Every structure is written in C-alpha cells, then in structure tokens.
Amino acid sequence: MEIGTPLKRLEIIGTDDTSILKANHSTMLNKGSKEYILSVREEILKNRGFKIPEDWDTEWDANLGPIWTPAELGDAIVCWLSPEYLHPLSTDDDIVAQADDRSGNGVVWENTHASGTLPTFTSELNGFKGMSFANDWLYSLDESGDGELDPGTGGFAISMLISHGAIGTAERYILCTDNSRDFALSVKEVSGVDRYKVYFNGSATESATTVDVSGDPFILTVGRKSGNQFLKTSAVSIDDTAITGSQVIDIDDSQQFFIGAREHVSSDRYAVAGFTGEIYEIIFYHGNLSTDDMEKIEGYLAHKYAQTAALHTGSPAHPYKTNPPRAGVPA
C-alpha cells in the first residue's frame, strides 16, 4: 500500500461492519471490518515507526501527523539555532565554537576571542545538548546591513528554551544588539526579587515577570506585536505587556547581535556581564506572532526536550500540554 509523503493524517471512517482506512484525507488504503482495519493500521504504525503519544486514542479515529516544527512558519523565521547546528571547537569537543542558522538565512554565530569566552555544551536534555553560559557569549557575524535580525518598527519575537543559574544585583545580559542596546534582555535582582529587564532604544523597562531560578528549563518569549512590547513564559497563558519603549530596532553595519552578553566597543570588541545559565534552542521571528503560533512553538520545544512541566496548567490548560503540535492537524 502506498502512502503519500508526508503522512499528515491517518484515520478510520465507518462502522463495525464496514470501515475504510484513509491517509491524508483522500487516499483510501484499505476497506473491511473495523477489526480488520485496526489491524492494518497497527501494522502500518509498527512497520513505519510512527511515534504516537501514549495517551492518544489509537483504538478509533486517531488524528496522526508529523510533529510541527518552526519550519512551518516559513520566511517569518529569520534565524533558528538548535543543538543539531552547534559546532565544537576543533581542539575541544566540550566547547561551542560556532552556531549555524537552521532557517536557511545564513546567519552565523561565533566568538573570535579566546576559548575561555566561549559557551560550553550543556548536559543532555532528552538527548540534546545546548549551550551553557558563564559570562560567555556568541555574536552574529552577518550584520553587514543585510537586516536579517533587524525588525525595524515591525513586530518580532524571540523564543528560547532557557534555564538560569545565579542571579545577583549586577545586571546580566541574555541578549543584546550592541552597546547602545537598541534591544536587550537582561536579568537582575531588584529589592530581593529577580526580574527581567527589556530594553528598546536604550531605555529599559522592568518586567512584571519574575525569573524562574529553580534551574529547570522553561520557555521564554520576548518581542513586540501590533506595536506592543511583551514578555511571556510558557508557565502562564498571558503576556506581560507592561514593557514599553521605542518602536525602532535597527542593527547597522557596525553592530552585532550578542547571545549571552552585552557588547562594549573599544579598540577591540569584547563583551561582559553575560548571564549564567543554559540556552538549548532559540528562534528569531519577524512579524506579529499569533497566539496559536506561539503556543505551537512552546509545544514544539516542550515535547522535543521532554519539558512539558513548563507548560501552564491553568484554565484552559496549554493546548499542547499532553500532545505535541502536529503539522496539518488541528490542536
């Protein structure tokens, strides 16, 4: 029996006496009793190795499909760093020397300084190793006016799976465009409370969202949509829109985007005040990220790294708390 690629849906339609097995809505694979059709589908799933969540209905009318990934967002993804695209230092497999862009836009991240300023690989999380920072950093090499990471006045979002180490009263930068901080995301202890700070055009707003210092990985998204700045963690269903700032983010020829530090310009480029923690995956998106797409990104990250505890359980619970998002299949 032939199944079109990719398999987006596999379903049974009919009664106990007469049922059909269909693939991708239109291709009829087999016809017979419900019992027979279920046995055929079991053979397909077993022989082709399709992975089905344990709590999904495999007895009747299960909607199957490939796992949704940010690739489904198309050209809106301007840079995507994931463990599969990290490269070690030639002389030390434990050090991350370069991060390539999975989106296809060709943004390259590295650090040409001494290896002591480079992040190291994290311990495995569900089989994947990310980047571990301790005042280390990477910066984009491809900011020569091409505008890959420049949202200008438009909407944008940066989503990441992150965990935090120690946070003190000294401000520590997770992301920063350059020394003028057209955009930056940092953490700092303020009056005994660990908070995020978000910069737009050099002006900072303290977020109402407190930092998760448990050490457990969680999903964080920061950006702007429909003219409003926001920050959100997957532990809650609502955005923190108390963040304010200029509408312009423009990384020009002389600037670079840093992960893990803030840039200072002198006779040479160097960076200080980086955060301590881990980033497993980070996705840069241009446009007004919809709630549905943001939840899909959160679901994708949570299930890829086995961190579904990071998804909120409020009312209603996160739509992908139990099952991962599927391409071509409604939640």
Walk me through what this model shows:
- The protein has helices at residues 34-48, 291-304, and strands at residues 10-14, 19-23, 27-32, 77-81, 86-89, 92-99, 109-110, 120-121, 131-134, 138-140, 156-164, 172-176, 183-190, 193-200, 203-210, 218-225, 228-233, 258-259, 262-265, 269-272, 276-286.
- It has two helices and 21 strands.
- Helix content is 9%, strand content 35%.
- By secondary structure, it is mainly beta.
- The strands form four sheets. A nine-stranded antiparallel beta sheet has the order 5-6-7-10-18-12-13-14-15, with no helix packed on it. Strands 4, 8, 9, 11, 16, 17 and 21 form a seven-stranded antiparallel beta sheet that branches. Strands 1-2-3 form a three-stranded antiparallel beta sheet, with helices on one face.
Can you give keywords for this protein?
9-stranded antiparallel β-sheet; mainly beta; 331 residues; 35% strand
Molecular shape: elongated
Uncertain segments of ≥5 residues (pLDDT<50)?
Answer: 52-62
Assembly level:
single chain
* First-residue to last-residue Cα separation: 28 Å
- The strand order across the widest sheet is 5-6-7-10-18-12-13-14-15
Strand-and-helix sequence, N→C?
EEEHEEEEEEEEEEEEEEEEEEH
Task: Please indicate the percent range of residues in DSSP E strands (runs of 2 or more).
Answer: 35-45%
What structural class do the secondary elements suggest?
mainly beta
Which sheet architecture does the biggest sheet show?
9 strands, antiparallel
Treating each run of at least 4 consecutive H or I residues as one helix, how many helices?
2
Q: Can you give the helix content as a percent range?
A: under 10%
Radius of gyration: 22 Å
